[in-house]
Structures are given as structure tokens and as C-alpha cells.
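[job 4471] stage=fold_predict status=RUNNING
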Amino acid sequence: MSEKRRYHNPVQRGFFPDPSVIRVGDDYYMVNSSFQYFPAIPISHSRDMVHWHIIGHAITNPEWLDISDIKDSHGIWAPDIEYVDGKFYIYATLRLNADGKRENNVMRRQLVMVSDRPEGPYSKPVCLEVDDIDPSLFVDDDGSKYMIIAKAAQAVPLSEDGLKVTGPARTAWEGTGERCSEGPHIMKKDGWYYAIVAEGGTGYGHGINVGRSRELFGSYECSPYNPVMRQKDPKAPIQRAGHGKLVQDQNGKWWCYYLCGRPNSGNYTTVGRESAMDPVQWTKDGWFTINEGKGPSTEQEAPDLPECVFERNLFDDFNDTKLNLEWEFVRNPDNGSWSLTERPGWFRIWTRDGQLNEIRAKNTLLRREQELSYEAETKVEFYPDKNGEQAGLTCYYSTATYARCAVCYEEGRKIQLVINRNHGEELVAEIEDVQEGPVFLKVVVEKLTRTFYYSYDGKEWMQVGMLENCIYLCDEGVPDDPKRHTGTLVGIYANNGGCGSRKPADFDYFRYND
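[job 4471] inference complete, writing C-alpha cells
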């Protein structure tokens, strides 16, 4: 007998937090939080439950979601996907700034999108004025629809089409009393309502607790196996495990997808929170455990499904008329700020006002880092002649923390390596008298060390500078920043540094290799 196939966690690697997964026939679909990035809510597909690739986004029309002034780590939180009566429903929280500029100072509202196809296009988001977080859809045996939402597991009755609130929220299960309840789901099996809630905060005390009842609105009893998921070993390679949802495969076996984080040389999850999967075991008395209560696994026996591997490394030569689905803009891109057709085979960005440390910066195109070590490179043609103009490569976490290596103009054409550790740019290295013509830029990441290079031919590389101990490129690295829930992405950008110019920066390709 051949050896059973194995897989390693996380299964959806890189900045893919808060997973919600469904099965439709032999296909599996996952959605994840996207925060301030656009297009919003990546939708991924798998046939073997282990290998995933992005097939679309729930919101692709910038006129339907204005997040142009959304603060870092605000925006789209914790989406849920369900398949009901031949339609795909996605519910998500829109976390607003709540800084006095919004009507009634509302912090959160819920969005609903519907499509006949899992990849979309989805309908224009319908807004549900419920000021809480992490909605999911539950359909009871009689067809009644409820939006399940924190705190703990509240049930908000919905109209038949799922697009309107028809009554006040009622608490189904109040949770265990642990702090920071979020990510609630309710499922029904064998006459029991199971309320599944993440508690303990989304950091290193994260976990999943469960209660059950014969009635939707209780009373619920707590599982004797709680927490059914939590990492209790502080030295383990997978931490921050929680926020989960169960799914049954076509062979009848149950699994749980949940978020997690891989520490990078200490408790620094630089790639962000990711999505992992472990098997579910049902007990004789009708409770369930996840991975037999051992916490998150690093290696596991794979589902008994045909393996279907997708290439996640990226080489984009920009020859297509549409962007690869791995790309994300930081907030809404400005109309006319970029083009794939102005110079065929190149991605063109025009410099605009707004630098990387400003929310108004619109010309930043990124893809997720997937591993703690990787290489990325690009080729740029850019001819700045005004102080402040810049275009190049960036490892970007937020407006507060990033590294950038760019062709720029500062009393002459130069290459500069600049870091922002905590709301302040620092010049690390500078190459003067950069020759005319295209410039190749590359970053080599080895855990917390990032080394930047330049070349004139793409073959002979010269070092610009090295950044060591880049702990600021993660959730935990700047503890005084109020919200840090994303991960580090890598990509390309251009801006004018405030000089007001609109100048083209052309990128010939972008290569990413783990």
C-alpha cells in the first residue's frame, strides 16, 4: 500500500487571515480579510483542500467600496462565504475610521454580496447597519436566515433573500467569557446547534471555543473539550491559532480551517496571519475536537482527494491586459494612475502626490509574501528630474512601516534605500550617479534580514544595502501602533514626493520566488 500523502500548515500561506471555507460538490472556496487593500476580499479555489489559488474578488469596482481614506488595518474584516439555493453569499464587516467624519460616528457596518458564480462578478454590496464585527450566514432547517455576529454568537434575523435585517439581534450563545470574542459561526448537525466562537484575542492567546443547544436561542452548554483549538506551546512553529470554521469533505470527513501565524525569529509574524487546516474528530457524545485537542499541526495526513497543485510563485511580464489576481493596490487606485496598455508589455504607473507614509498614496501595487525567505525583482525605466520623484521596489506593511528601494531624483539621479520603522523615514544607503537607462532592482529576504540590490543588465548585481532585524514589518513589531492586523507584502510603486509631477514609471516585469 502506498504511503499516505501529507501536507504542511499553513495551507493558504501569506497574508490570508480569518478563513471561511465552503464545499460545493467537489470544489472548495475560501474567502479572507483584505483590510485596506483593493480589490477587496480574495476568493480562492481548491480541489484537494490543501492547494489554493485566487480566482476572483468579491468587490472589484472601486465605486462600490471607497476605502481611499481608510486607516491602516481598517476596511474589510472577516468575510464569510456560503452557498444557498444556487447562489454564493459573502458577508463581511466594513470597519470605518470612526474619527468623527462618519455619520453618527458609526464604527462598523456589514456588507452583503451575491453571485451565481463563486469567482464573481458579485452584486453591488448591500449595507446592513449592524455595528459589530465578523458576520456569517446561518440558514436553519425551515429556511430562516440569520446573520451570526459578535459579540460571542448573536443572531440577527434576515429577510428571505438575506439582504435586509428584519429584527433586533438576539444572543444565541454568550460564549465562555474569555476576552475578545469574534469570528462566530453556527452550524446544525444531528439536531444540535453548535456555536463556534474565537476567543482570547487574535494574538498569542487566540483559540476556538464551542457551545451547543437543541434550540437556536439556547440554553447552550459549553464543550468539555474547550478550547477545541489553541496553541499552548510558546515555542511551536505555528502560533495565534483560532477563528475557525468547519467543513465536511465529499468522503464524509470533517475538517476545520482556522487562522494562524508563523513566528519569524521570535514572536514576529512578518508574513501576517495565514490559514491552516486540521482534521475534526466527533466524539460518541456528539462533541468535536480539532486535531485531537493537540493544537495546530505542522504536518498532517492529507484528505483522501486527488492532489491538485497550483504554482504560487509569480512571474508577471505584464503582457496581459488585466492584472494578475495575486496583485493588490493599497486602497483604491486613482482613475488613470496606471495602465497595462499605454506601453504594451509594461506596467506603467504615473507619479502622483502622496508618499508611502501617507494614506493618500495610490500608486502602490503589491502581492503577498508567502514565506519567511524569498527573492523578488523587477526592471524599471524611470527618468526623474525633480527632487522627490521616485519609483521602485517596496516591502510594505503599512504607512507606518516599510522599506523601499527606488530610482529617484535628489539633486541628481540616484538609487536610495529608505526604511520607515515607526512613522518616520530613514535613509539607509544611497547610490549616486546612476546611469541612464533601465535599472533592475531586487530584494533577497532571509527571515528578518532584507538585502537590496541593483543591476544595469539583470545579471551583475551590486548591493545597495542590508536591513537587519526587520521586526517592524509585522503585527507585533510596533506595539504602540493602535491596529496592526495585516502582513508584509512586496511590490512596486511610484510617487512624486510632493513635487506635483505626473511622470511615467514603466515596469517590464515582476518576479517572486520562494
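[job 4471] summary: The chain has no helices and 39 strands.
[job 4471] exit 0
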